[in-house]
Amino acid sequence: MPNYRDEAVVLRTHKLGEVDRILTLLTRQHGQVRAVAKGIRKTSSKFGGRLEPFAVVDLQLFEGKNLDTVTQVEQLASYGTKIIEDYQRYTIASAIVEAAERLTREVSSEKHYLLVVGALRSLAQTEIQSDQILDSYLLRSLSLSGWVPSLEVCVSCGSSPTVFSVQTGSVTCAQCSIPGSISIGTDGIDHMKNLLAGNWEEVSKASDQIRNSVSGTIAGYTQWQLERGLKSMNFVER
Hints:
Radius of gyration: 19 Å
Mean pLDDT: 94
Oligomer: single chain
Largest sheet: 5 strands, mixed, barrel
Strand content: 15-25%
Number of domains: 2
CATH superfamily of the largest domain: Recombination protein O, C-terminal domain
């Protein structure tokens, strides 16, 4: 069917020619889509500023051979307006949409879409620490993509874990740890569990030391699974 309609979050845009723009979209029902918005850079464009990064929109598109074409747009939410007011929130949002683009290139689900939208909404509302939103998003999105961390007991002996392996995504005790593992203690393991579950009340109780240690661990886990790091992470302030 050449015409279709879907909700989408705008992950990335770049210029095409003098007045057009190519959009990378994560849709609710059709996965990741690349589409062209014709004439969007003209001052008279009917799309206006509705197709900027971090925007959530209802779209009608025409299916093309290489690129689909946006024919109608209705904005559902513009989280970018609030996000760009703060540098940390902006860099974290950029890391979230970059990770989303990488993780949904081949396979995605409605859960991926809802997870991105939820993370951007939380960043715009500013009620949760932005770095913790990023850490939670990375753990959850990796889990949706098949890399579910095993955080309950030492995978070798079943005892209480204190060490996380970025290579395997599993935890061990200190005696069973493998080279390259990171010791984050039982508090660090518990913090990862709370981030994965979205237990924000418990997340807020973690000390700065635990949060920083776990953030570095999650960044390493993400880089290992994606085979290279996220460029936006270089600009995130912790």
